[in-house]
Amino acid sequence: MLRKSHRLACLLLSLSVLPCMAGLSACDDLRLRKIEPSASTTLGPPHSATTEPTTTEEPAATPTPDPDPDHAAMAEALELAAKHGIPEEDLRGRYDLFVRFCRNTESNGRLGEFADYVYLLFPLIADHIKPESEEYFLAKVGSLKIQSRQLKRNHAGEYDQSDNTATINTLYLESDELSYQATVMHELIHFVDTTIDGPVEKATFTVDHAYPINDVPKDQQGSLIGASDVEFLVEGGAELYLSKYYTHYARHYIPAVQFLTGLEYLCGSDLIDEAFFCHDSAYVLSDFLISQGFTPEELICFYTTMYAMCYWKEPTGTVLRPEDVLIRLYENIRGSDFREDPAFCYILYCIYDEDFDFDKFPSPNEEFLKSNLLSYEEGVAFLTMVLTALPDLPELDVYGPPICCLFIDGKLQFAIEITLTGSSDDDAAPPHVALVIDYDFDTGVSRSYEIFTPPLVDKNG
Fold first, then answer.
1. Of 265, 240, 136, 244, which Cα lies nearest the Cα of 195?
2. Do 411 and 26 form a contact (C-beta atoms < 8 A)?
3. Cα–Cα dist 261/238, whole Å
4. Number of neighbours of residue 81 by Cβ within 10 angstroms
5. pLDDT-based confidence at 26, cuts 50/70/90?
6. Given the DSSP bridges, would you call strands 203-205 and 210-212 parallel, antiparallel or unpaired?
7. pTM of the full predicted structure?
8. Cβ-Cβ contacts under 8 Å for 287 (sequence gap 6 or more)
9. Where are the domains of the chain?
């Protein structure tokens, strides 16, 4: 997949920003994930549990409880967290779950040198796992395999659900360290997505409804018009949560990441969490959009459009752009003029790219998207204004996409991938970090910033 990107050399000591071009690896954006029935554990997924027969046996005597079980679990969890370099706040108070998670990880001989990456997953897991899913998921942690080898296809990595294996392309061993490590985490987020609530299922459609593919009413099975696993949610969602938890910037699948950010802006994070982490993600998202007035035929067009945008392919059939979906949702949910909402308009700008030719990706809002959103040159000027308004900002280089909108710690912020000039030895490339800007969209004021160093830069793959 070819992705035009931009690099801005920011010489902030003289308060100027000079645009120039830099290319990203064409294979960075492609990460194949195979979705097949899981056979790596005898535990059934939580949603497929059967009812146990009723018995008349006398209940066992209640065991004498530990006088302070929480303290014991906390002490062991904190010791394990210190051993693996995990800060206490990342445990989310789930001390017992972390202890069990560590036991399954430590006893898994299939992780090799990648075990450290698995421990980094815990805050993501603790924030989204349901109690009824814990045993099933932990069993999957115990059987997970991570390997590196050259892939036949020029993908950065892939996760195969059928044998619970994440594979990282050895070509990435020679890329910059953070790119390689971010690829590992992206594939492990696929692992979490497909095991935290059981195997992912497609959605299928009639002209009026969406159904989980394994739950279509018998009287509707003859009137199906299509099915989808909503690939943009699978890949864009993995990149979105990679950004939220580990990098604080988005590099790939930008149309999908920014569409999901727009959906989060309109509907809240609970919808995004539910849609991404449940086993029937495609159905949850589709059912919501149908409830908002979209037809199944429109959803099929939208999903194929997003696939083309995310993988830089020629669109096929009728096009429905993500900006148009968000605009319809905005008008339906908020009932006001979206043009008067600067935060929403900037999310739309982050989706739009001049390479998405309107002759190929037409839009009923084309006039607005072309005339009221920022061109590349205007985007450079805007970024210059944002950066120069920040006090005491060190000299840095900014990599494209120039800027994204992301919800980080529950707040919509600007996020940019950067390197700090002079932050490494002459023989080593400076590490990639994130510049997160608290920007007031209503007043146009840059209030503060954080330079965020991803936790994975200390890990070696």
1. 136
2. no
3. 13
4. 21
5. very low
6. antiparallel
7. 0.85
8. 210
9. 6-41+81-200+232-279+289-458
